[in-house]
Design goal:
Length: 605
């Protein structure tokens, strides 16, 4: 194939490159957004059309010109259909994008491609094809066949529909989109007018198709629309889908507080129509709220709550006002967003009422627990005292038949006394009446006490109770030794309940320069991960059944955690079913100093 240079080739090549560059830019920056695929197809179709025509003009032989004319038609039909589909998506007519509409839309373009490539057999596209050598360079010439006019009429119809859709879009879109739509119209009119001039043979350049040259204007117009008006970033169809579909009422005001746009929720709230609202001051649409709106609209930025209506018919809205700026940073208006929070406010009021009722019930429960537990201690003490006197024979010898009942009375009274003590401790903890007495003591006293009080119980059950003091532990620490004894007694007692064989170990160790720790571990049944989430909850037990083996009200571990927290420490648990449980308590060496440090950090002194 021989090529001949002429003055039309360079500008056509530049136009093709322009559209290819625009396609690559859109693919890299906007791919996946609304309208991008048909837009890229439009640019690619225009580039194929222009490149094909560039080579056709440069080719010398007629066969080469015919071949590249056929290539051009691939770009021609693609660009026309792609532009129509882009406008359809741009203007929000998504139902047209269903295959049942797109497939019929492609029938004539596909037939056109087939007829172009088989034109030699029927001449439906071109008749009497010849090489015109009368000009400065050889040119393709031929008489248009019947199908050429069918294709042209179909293409012009699609272009006309696209223009109508764009004009309709301008009529109903906010002013921001006028620039976008105007540049799109310029982009489509340029090659359309060029093609009409070529088809009607009114071109000042005989046998020269000026349509591909007009794509230069199309590329510039579309580039200006993308960079100047954010085409493909925000388009009317996307605006309609988001703006109109929002549950919040959105009202756009100009600098004179006149309505220039509002969504469907805003129209429903204001009980107005676009025809009535657009251009009217907001205070005239809501005359009953004039004073309130005038107060709010004086500020540039606002977030507050307002109430419309009277008594039971009143609705509460969260109002947000923000300024709108143009590309030069100048204020052009304000955006008013009204969110109906009436239901949320009602729920908040109900929750507040429920919270107050719960707090009252909790305070009442704590008072009842404190009073009842305190009043139970005196008669329980008397019962236990007399029962032990009977057991020891101080009131006379007991018969063999009387020993077992008396021992049961003592055991059950002891158990009930422990429960009452736990209830009283829980009530005092909830009321904040537990007093912590910090003093200096040796940690070994804790181990001695737990051995003395819990060792016999462990031995009675056939378990080993081991205690260990790590060498890194300081000789003296500060804390409430009586509360720590209570904590250890509860933890070891809990371990005794759920351990049938093996051992229970209590270890005291140093953590760091300011903290020490206590570890209580056992080889018992363990606690499941689900139950570990609740073991420190008051009145919670792993087994709630009436026939459970271990009695209690589920306060032991809750009291332990609360006491540890009052001592400025923390407690953690690690447990595995059928392997055992390990509680670790971390405490400050000096809780008073830690409290002072916390206050210093909080106040900043």
């Amino acid at each position: 194939m021989s090529l001949q240079y002429n003055t039309y080739v360079p500008p056509l090549a530049v136009i093709a490159v322009e559209m290819i560059v625009l396609t690559v830019f859109v693919w890299r920056r906007h791919f996946g957004r609304r309208g991008v695929i048909p837009f890229m197809a439009l640019m690619i179709g225009g580039a194929v059309w222009t490149l094909g025509y560039t080579i056709e003009l440069a080719a010398v032989e007629l066969d080469a010109k015919i071949f590249f004319t056929k290539i051009e038609y691939i770009g021609i039909v693609t660009s026309v259909v792609a532009f129509f589909l882009f406008v359809v998506e741009y203007t929000g007519r998504d139902h047209w994008l269903h295959p049942k509409y797109i497939i019929p839309l492609l029938i004539i373009p596909l037939i056109t491609i087939v007829l172009v490539w088989t034109n030699e057999a029927h001449g439906l596209m071109y008749q009497q094809i010849r090489l015109d050598t009368s000009g400065p360079f050889p040119n393709f010439d031929g008489d248009w066949g019947t199908w050429f006019w069918v294709h042209t009429a179909y293409s012009y119809t699609l272009m006309l529909l696209a223009v109508i859709f764009l004009l309709q879009s301008i009529s109903r879109s906010p002013q921001f989109y006028y620039g976008q739509t105007a540049t799109l119209l310029i982009g489509v009119f340029a090659p359309w007018v060029g093609n009409i001039i070529h088809v009607s043979r009114l071109s000042p350049f005989p046998n020269l198709d000026i349509t591909p040259f007009a794509f230069a204007i199309t590329g510039l117009a579309f580039a200006w629309s993308m960079f100047g008006y954010r085409l493909l970033d925000v388009i009317p169809a996307a605006r309609d889908a988001v703006f109109e579909g929002m549950d919040d009422a959105i009202i756009v005001l100009d600098m004179q507080d006149r309505i220039i746009d509002l969504n469907s929720t805003g129209r429903a709230l204001l009980a107005t129509s676009p025809k009535t609202a657009i251009g009217a001051p907001l205070v005239e649409i809501l005359p009953d709220q004039r004073l309130l709106l005038e107060q709010f609209l004086k500020v540039g930025q606002l977030r507050n709550e307002i109430t419309f209506g009277i008594d039971n018919a009143a609705s509460t809205f969260e109002i947000r006002i923000s300024s709108l700026f143009n590309r030069r940073g100048k204020t052009t208006g304000r955006l008013v967003v009204l969110r109906d929070i009436t239901q949320r406010k009602q729920v908040e009021r109900k929750l507040a009422e429920a919270r107050d009722q719960a707090l009252d019930a909790l305070r009442l429960k704590s008072r009842i627990l404190a009073v009842v537990s305190h009043d139970l201690r005196t008669p329980l003490g008397a019962i236990l005292g007399y029962a032990e006197m009977l057991k020891e024979g101080m009131l006379g010898p007991l018969s063999d038949a009387q020993h077992e009942p008396v021992e049961r009375i003592v055991a059950n009274t002891n158990q009930l006394t422990e429960l009452v003590s736990d209830l009283l401790d829980q009530a005092q903890l909830e009321a904040g009446k537990i007093t912590i007495h910090v003093s200096q003591f040796t940690p070994s006293k804790l181990l001695n006490t737990v051995e003395a009080t819990m060792g016999p119980k462990a031995k009675q059950k056939g378990l080993a109770l081991k205690t260990e003091m790590e060498p890194d532990m300081p000789t003296m620490v500060r804390g409430d030794i009586s509360r720590l004894n209570q904590v250890l007694t509860n933890l070891v007692g809990n371990a005794l309940k759920f351990t049938e064989e093996g051992e229970i170990k209590v270890r005291i160790f140093g953590v760091d320069d300011t903290h020490w720790g206590i570890e209580v571990s056992d080889t018992g049944s363990g606690i499941s991960p689900r139950d570990q989430e609740h073991i420190f909850d008051p009145f919670w037990q792993v087994d709630f059944s009436e026939t459970r083996e271990h009695r209690g009200v589920g306060l032991g571990l809750s009291i332990v955690q609360q006491l540890v927290q009052r001592l400025k420490g923390k407690i953690t648990v690690e447990s595995h079913l059928e392997e055992g449980t390990r509680f670790v308590i971390t405490l400050p060496l000096d809780p008073i100093k830690e409290t002072i440090d916390e206050q210093t950090t909080r106040t900043g002194y």
